[in-house]
Each structure stands twice: as C-alpha cells, then as structure tokens.
Amino acid sequence: MKKVFILVFALWLCVPGAADQADLARFDTVVGYLVDTARAQPTQDFLLTTARESLPQAGSDLRDALRNADDKGALQTTVIQALLKTLDDPWARLYTPEEVAALRERMSGDRKSSMGVVVVPQKAPIAYRVVGVSPNSPADGKLFAGDSIIWANGLDAVDEDFLDSIKGESGQVNHLKVRDEHGKVREVNVTLQDFDGPTAYVENKEKGIIRVASFGPDTAQELNQAMAELDGKPAILDLRFNGGGYVTAAVASSDLFLERGDKVVTTVAPKKKEVHIAEHGVTYHQPVCILVNGRTASAAEIFTAALKINHKAYVVGDKTYGKGSVQRLVSLPGNWAVKYTTSLYQTPDGVFIDKIGLHPDTEIDMELALSSSSEDKQLAAALAWAEKAGTLAQR
Question: Which of 269, 313, 255, 315 is nearest to 291 (CA)?
Fold first, then answer.
C-alpha cells in the first residue's frame, strides 16, 4: 500500500477502541483490491475522497474520524459501503460473516436451517408454489413440485410476514397447510435442518430430467454422475431458477459436452481478456435440451450459451436474466467479504449479454409458478423434443 494507507493504519494501531486487528485492516484491504482489479478502475485518490465524503461528520478528515471513532468496525462498514456504491456496480456489496457463510453454503449445496424447497409466489389464488425440492432435505418426500403452501405457522399466504415465518434456526418445526394440484389440502410438518444436498441430480430418470440448481465446486462431478445414470438417453437439463455460481464450475460442466478446444466463454476485464476453452473432449454424446427462464442467470447463462452456440444443446423456455458480468468475492479480515465486478463475459460467438439475456431456440412464456407442475408447457415442449431426438438417434 502507498504511504497514506501505511500512515492511517499506524494511527489506528496507536488508538484504543472497540476495533480489533481485523477491523483495522479491513478498509485498507478493500481499497487495495478495488484499485487493482475492479472493472470500474477507481483510483486511490478517488476512493480516499469518497471515504471522507461518506463519513457521518460532514467535512471530517478521514484520519481524525478513524482515530476518534468509538466503534471502528461500524465506521469502516459505513465507509466501505460508500466506496462500493460509487463504483456504479449493481452487484457490489459487503458481506457480514453470517452472510458469507450463507453464500458459501448456497454454492456448495450445503444448507443450514432449511426445508430444502424452492418456492415462488402464485398470483391467484395467492399461495407459494413449490417448484423444486432438494434431495436429502427435510422436505424430501413431504412436499412436491406443484404443491401450493397456503398457510404456515398460523399465517395465511397473503400475510406480509409469511415467508419470514418459515425461516428460523435448525429444529424449528414448520406447520404447513398444502394444497396439491388436484385441490386436496393436507397438513404437513417440516423441521428446519442442516443438510448436504447436491447441486445437480437426476429428478426423473425415466424422462431423462436432470436438475442443475446452481454451479458450485462439485457441480461438474455431480452432473457427470447424473448424466451417467441416464444410460445414453436424451437428457433434459433443467436450469430454471439457477441463479449461477462460479465461472470455473460452468466451464468444467460445459467440458462434459464440448469438443476439445471449443470456446466456452471469454471474460473481458479492463486490463485482461481471458478465453476459457473445453479441455477434455466430449464425454456425453446423446441429445441434450436445456430448460431456462427469467431466473436463469450468470454462470447458468455461460453454460447454456456454451452448449447452445457450439450446437450441443437445444434450449427451451423464457429469455434468461441477462447477468453477463463476473464478480469476485474477496475474503476480508474478520471473516467478512466484499464482492464486486471484475469483468464482463462474452458468449462463444463474441456477444455480450449483460442486461440482455439469452433467447431460447423455442421461447415459451409461462408463469414461474407453473414450473414443474402438470401445467408446465416448457417442460412439455422439452419432453416432446427429447422424444423426437431419441427416435431420430435410433435410426
């Protein structure tokens, strides 16, 4: 770091207060990373000015404010949040230690204090529709895709506190009233628990449906195993509601279907351009259809574009979200973290899709709440395509 930061850091160390060593180092670390790698390319002077302007005491000198703060950790949180706001980066944010743990578990497939379901609001009649149930979760075998949760823990689904009521600590029992697709209402108790769930798994072997829920460290391996279970039949990869994950996981997963040397994605940063290619050659040759919707984003879009543009998959569903930027998650002292944008990515044909999204080969507009239900037109189209593709492959 330059002299000004060394001086500020030295002043902090000389001052007693509520801050520990982690608090004292956090601001310094953030500034260094943003100057070096943020796509916004802020200068050190710009960040220092921003930090001073963000202090509650208008016109205060940064050094004096840090020296006199009763709670340096709280003050630095305010300053760091202001630094990130000036980047004009919608994805930049500061994570508390608790939020860091939740983020990492979501990427890994591990869940803490969860029922293990994906729900979306249903407009009429008002309810929360189950569109996915994770294997090995507390809800596995109790709740099913297409179920509508209409009541929980004394609250109707219309209550503004409804969703909060079903969240809590491990051991909390959620008392639910659920209406199935035939209109029959049943009562179900589901206990929140920690569990280890896969990010990619076979949802229906007979129909060849594989759910890819996110792209975490184990996704490529799990997807490899799921594909092997289909024994060569056409595969439907359901990436709806897949908000993304790690670029490296999307590249490794794409590698299962692409020829060696096929372009997967190009990340474009102000000072660097990096092309990611398939390295191992095709593992699975059967027809593949990918299901997407408006919640398919980021690494899920990288994977979809790689297979679509390299003519390895047919895509069905709604236009994807359009998150064509790459973020870096940096660990900070004290188990905090900061996330910010480092680059944009290009699809294999050189197109930037940030804020644009991907258009499926067959575009079917459908209410999100109908996903994985008997009224799922997108899945029906994918199944029809897979049946035809399987027949052609047998000729």
Answer: 315
Q: How many domains does the chain have?
A: 3
Evaluate whether 128 touches 237 at the Cβ level (below 8 Å): no
Burial class (CB in 10 A: 0-12, 13-18, 19+), 359: middle
Backbone angles phi, psi at 367, to 5 degrees: -60, 135
Q: Are 227 and 255 in contact (CB under 8 A)?
A: no
What lies within 8 Å, CB to CB, of 154 at 6+ separation is 165, 175
CA quadruple 204, 205, 208, 213: dihedral positive or negative?
A: positive
Number of H helices, E strands in the chain: 11, 19
Q: β-pairing, 110-114 with 362-363? A: unpaired
Residues 234 and 282 occupy one common structural domain: yes
Structural domain boundaries, residue 28 = 3-88
Output the six-digit token pair for 119. 């729900």
In a domain, 101, yes or no: no
My answer on whether 262 and 388 are in the same domain is: yes
Alpha-carbon gap, residue 276 to 256, rounded angstroms = 14
Helix 299-309 with 247-254: angle, nearest 10 deg? 30
pLDDT digits (tens, 9 = 90+) for 339-392: 999 999 999 999 999 999 999 999 999 999 999 999 999 999 999 999 998 766
Over residues 321-335, the pLDDT tens digits come to 999 999 999 998 888
Question: Counting Cβ atoms within 10 Å, is residue 31 exposed (0-12), middle (13-18) or buried (19+)?
Answer: buried
Contact 102, 112 (CB under 8 A): yes
Q: Which residue has the tokens 């949180």?
A: 77
- Helices 44-53 and 21-37: crossing angle in degrees, nearest 10, is 130
The angle formed by the CA atoms of residues 159, 162 and 167, to the nearest 5 degrees, is 165
CB-based contact 17:70 (threshold 8 Å): yes
Tokens standing for residue 139: 């809800």
pLDDT of residue 300: 98
